[in-house]
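Morning F.,

Quick status update on the modeling queue. The single chain you submitted on Monday has been processed. Sequence for confirmation:
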Amino acid sequence: MRKFFEDGNAERRLDSWIWAVRLFKTRSAAAAACRGGHVRVNGSPAKPGQRVGPDDEIRLRVEGVEKIVVVVRAITKRVGAAVVPECMVDRSPPPPPKEVLASVPRRDRGAGRPTKRDRREIDRLRGLEQ
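Structure tokens below.
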């Protein structure tokens, strides 16, 4: 079998594993997410050096999206996108529909900081005003 699958049941570093299965572009970004509290293993906050193995559940925030994955095989070398499903099971909820995202009011880029009047109008649209 391929080199990155040797001893796939052993435990590996968390930051190395989430980088290897392409959840982050760099290992340093994966470690920063762990240090920032954006990664949880089996429900508890995780450090970059924490060991993960098969059947561990990892919850992380990537670019504002919640991802839930279960480790199938612990690897350290980065693998191709076609091999990733052999190493993890993605249990993430489906993304919200585009209609919901489009209904959030957005300011034009470069329009500057909202005035007090603008903020009150935004709050009124959101239904936050009492």
